[in-house]
Amino acid sequence: MESIDRRLAAEMLKIQAVLLRPEEPFVWASGWHAPIYCDNRKILSCPELRSSVAGWLADKARETCPGAEIVAGVATGAIAHGVLVAERLGKPFIYVRPKPKNHGTGSRIEGILPRGAKVVVIEDMVSTGMSSLSAVRALREAGAEVLGMVAIFTYDFDLAASRFDEAGVPLTALSNYGALVEEALAAGSIQSHAYEVLQEWRRNPDTYDRDNQ
Question: What pTM was estimated for this model as a whole?
Answer without folding.
Answer: 0.94
